[in-house]
Amino acid sequence: MTQTQEDSQTACPVARSVEIVGDKWTILVLRELYMGATRFEEIQIQTEANPQMLASRLKALEADGMVERRAYNQRPLRYEYHLTKKGQAFYPVIYALRAWGETWCKQKGEGLAVRFVHRACGHDVGTASFCKHCGVPVDRKDLDAAVSKRFSAERAVRADAFTSARRGANVAAPRRN
């Protein structure tokens, strides 16, 4: 994920970008950061990445300057992950992936997974990157997001499964004498 000497010598910005964000796990980690998750466990639950996979993606994103770690607890030492300016600048790519997925990867009749409403006028922007009502371009900071009932339920199932699995792992096996 971090740029290699060979890849960084290419003039192609697509090749350079893919070196940083070109896998499923990295994209899902970024999705969660944009949705407001900051803690390792929150990100792990919704991406369903194993701890090693997630740790490697977060370290690579940090090394590439897209994410910064901030300690939120000293004992034990725990970190939150926050998007840097570079990480925030990637949002239009995620938004475009969302729009493409909503258009081309769903069955007819499925609603939007996340609805975005333009804060300035209160109108839904659909999958556009501009407000059709106002005619102005919109950034993430200009939008209020509402997760659909279906997507919210899906996310809750993942959180419940994670909690149940963790609880099961913490139950000690019965002792044999």
From TrEMBL:
Pfam families: HxlR. One of its GO terms (molecular function) is DNA binding. Signal peptide: none annotated. It comes from the Bacteria. Residues 12-109 form the HTH hxlR-type domain. The keyword Transferase does not apply. Keywords: DNA-binding, Transcription, Transcription regulation. This is Transcriptional regulator. It comes from Cupriavidus lacunae.
